[in-house]
């Protein structure tokens, strides 16, 4: 871990605000500070007057800081991929993107058991909380205002990220990816594409090649070989060959031990994750290619385009049906089927609020509720009510923000950024995480198509050769074993560390 790059103390009368931010930053000509990896055609054009209208055009992950005489304003990216933690008392407010600072100073407070139970169930904490009472997160797509008395006002900024367009979701996706690649090309850095051979990374490779970008494909190959790793490797190799691309294979020894995992807990304490592949893969990428690179990933495409479940399985089809095309009849049939499958009592939403609440606090990603919900999760319900009232948008946009506030804060969508954070590297681009794609998914997506053919937008844009490879790939991998779950072992390491901290 690097030393703090930005350390400033601002005094208001007898009170102070302290920033400890481990990140590169840019100060534009209008005295606005940008942390993280803001990708924009010209950051110098952004000022206090046009910031709210221009923020939707900033890609990457970022934190924006504006210092005034009697106020401090903070703006973050649409997913809060730039994490910011803060702790307040009567005389001071401390903000940092590294929660270890608070841990070392023993400033995290007691355990918040409601949020901890949520973490135990979901593997992540909600968008504005950790599972410690005195330590909070800067919620996604928000504006944080600090006045001279250290009063904190947080305003939902999601509306200012929305881009309405008459284009359908396919055209919007293509336009957005083309724009992302244009911005990446302008950085003049070598592009390292995390390439799995799946549709998401395949489309990015296709577009990067079309635009004559300087890029290389990287595949993380876990050792020892398993059914899953060999299937992924063969798919990636076939797709790379079809596109005439060199595939850099980086071996990752899939071995968990407590000593190595302590490093992961330095950046992933609030995001339970069982995979170390990207964590150690990033280290090997930096060793092989240096730091003058941009790591590009198809991360979060599933969560944004399909609200999560995108696999061609019965359970994922059921998920998508409940998320996108639910009605009383389908809800009833699916609920009965799942009750019999899991041997539990489930409840379908009876009104609009419960529809949102069950979507956010779902049962195995099904928007249903297990057991009696009348006296539980009071703070979560209050959060959802606040979100609904603050947004005043159509249901699709509210559900998307709830997805951002919930699941997209989780480890599956945070692992790459947090892995890079540990290695003090921030040049990361996620072309599927843009305002245009998020907006068009909510506004123009064909929901029936998504249920039947998940991520149809991506598949439509793939050329015929790529489609053939995806459809025909059936590698012969008989004899290889399934990957052994490390979840219980890793969960034990997490709980051990949490117990140490709450003492």
Short description:
The chain is an alpha/beta fold and 503 residues long. It contains 20 helices and 18 strands.
Give the spatial strand order of the biggest sheet.
3-4-5-6-10-11
- If helices are DSSP runs of H or I spanning 4 or more residues, what is the number of helices? 20
Number of domains: 3
CATH 4th-level superfamily of the largest domain: HUPs
How many strands appear in the DSSP assignment? 18
Shape: globular
Q: Report the CATH architecture of the largest domain.
A: 3-Layer(aba) Sandwich
> Approximately how much beta-strand content do the residues carry?
15-25%
Name the helicity range.
40-55%
Q: Do you know the CATH topology of the largest domain?
A: Rossmann fold
Report the major sheet: 6 strands, antiparallel
Regions with little confidence, pLDDT below 50 for 5+ residues: 477-483
The rounded distance between the terminal residues' Cα atoms is 25 Å
CATH class group of the largest domain: Alpha Beta
- The rounded Rg comes to 22 Å
Overall average pLDDT: 88
Estimated structural class: alpha/beta
Q: Could you characterize what this model shows?
A:
The protein is of the alpha/beta class. It has three domains: 6-161, Glutamine Phosphoribosylpyrophosphate, subunit 1, domain 1, CATH 3.60.20; 169-303 and 411-489, Rossmann fold, CATH 3.40.50.620; 309-408, no CATH class. Helix content is 41%, strand content 17%. It has 20 helices and 18 strands. The protein has helices at 51-54, 100-104, 113-122, 169-186, 199-210, 227-242, 258-265, 277-289, 301-305, 314-324, 328-342, 352-360, 378-391, 395-405, 411-422, 435-443, 447-452, 456-461, 464-472, 487-501; strands at residues 6-12, 15-21, 25-27, 33-36, 62-67, 71-76, 85-88, 92-96, 136-137, 142-147, 152-156, 190-194, 215-223, 247-253, 293-296, 346-347, 369-370, 428-429. A six-stranded antiparallel beta sheet has the order 3-4-5-6-10-11. A five-stranded mixed beta sheet has the order 1-2-8-7-9, with no helix packed on it. Strands 14-13-12-15-18 form a five-stranded parallel beta sheet, with helices on both faces. Strand 5 (62-67) and strand 6 form a beta hairpin. Helix 8 crosses helix 15 and helix 12 crosses helix 13 (378-391). It is globular.
């Amino acid at each position: 871990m690097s030393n703090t790059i930005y350390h400033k103390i601002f005094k208001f009368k007898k009170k102070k605000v302290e920033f400890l931010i481990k990140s590169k930053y840019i100060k534009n000509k209008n005295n606005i500070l940008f942390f993280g990896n803001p990708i924009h055609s010209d950051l110098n054009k952004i000022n206090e007057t046009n910031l709210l209208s221009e923020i939707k055009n900033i890609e990457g992950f970022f934190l924006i800081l504006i210092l005034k005489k009697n106020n401090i304003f903070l703006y973050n990216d649409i997913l809060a991929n730039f994490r910011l933690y803060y702790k307040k008392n009567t005389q001071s407010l401390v903000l940092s993107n590294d929660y270890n600072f608070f841990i070392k100073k023993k400033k995290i407070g007691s355990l918040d058991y409601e949020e901890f139970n949520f973490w135990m169930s979901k593997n992540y904490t909600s968008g504005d909380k950790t599972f410690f009472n005195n330590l909070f997160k800067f919620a996604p797509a928000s504006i944080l205002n600090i006045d001279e008395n250290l009063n904190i006002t947080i305003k939902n900024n999601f509306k200012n990220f929305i881009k309405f367009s008459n284009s359908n979701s396919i055209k919007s996706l293509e336009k957005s990816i083309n724009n992302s690649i244009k911005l990446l090309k302008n950085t003049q850095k070598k592009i390292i594409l995390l390439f799995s051979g799946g549709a998401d990374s395949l489309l990015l490779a296709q577009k990067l090649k079309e635009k004559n970008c300087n890029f290389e494909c990287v595949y993380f190959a876990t050792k020892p070989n398993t059914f899953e790793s060999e299937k992924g490797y063969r798919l990636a190799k076939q797709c790379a060959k079809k596109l005439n691309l060199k595939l850099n294979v980086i071996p990752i020894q899939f071995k968990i031990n407590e000593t190595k995992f302590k490093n992961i807990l330095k950046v992933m304490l609030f995001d339970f994750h069982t995979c170390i592949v990207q964590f150690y893969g990033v280290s090997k990428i930096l060793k092989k290619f240096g730091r003058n690179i941009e790591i590009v990933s198809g991360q979060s495409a599933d969560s944004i385009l399909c609200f999560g479940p995108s696999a061609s399985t019965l359970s994922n089809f059921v998920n998508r049906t409940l998320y996108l095309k639910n009605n009383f009849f389908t809800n009833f049939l699916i609920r009965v089927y799942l009750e019999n499958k899991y041997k539990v009592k489930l409840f379908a939403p009876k009104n609009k609020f419960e529809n949102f609440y069950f979507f956010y606090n779902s049962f195995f990603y099904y928007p249903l509720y297990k057991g009696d919900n009348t006296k539980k999760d009071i703070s979560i319900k209050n959060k959802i009510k606040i979100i609904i009232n603050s947004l005043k948008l159509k249901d699709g946009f509210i559900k998307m923000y709830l997805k951002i506030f919930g699941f997209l804060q989780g480890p599956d969508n945070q692992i790459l950024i947090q892995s890079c954070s540990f290695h003090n590297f921030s040049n990361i681009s996620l072309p599927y995480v843009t305002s245009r794609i998020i907006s068009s998914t909510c506004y123009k997506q064909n929901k029936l198509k998504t249920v039947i053919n998940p991520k149809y937008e991506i598949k439509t844009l793939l050329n015929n050769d790529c489609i053939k490879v995806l459809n025909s790939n059936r590698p012969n991998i008989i004899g290889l074993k399934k990957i052994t779950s490390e979840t219980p072992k890793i969960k034990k390491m997490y709980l051990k560390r949490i117990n140490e901290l709450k003492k």
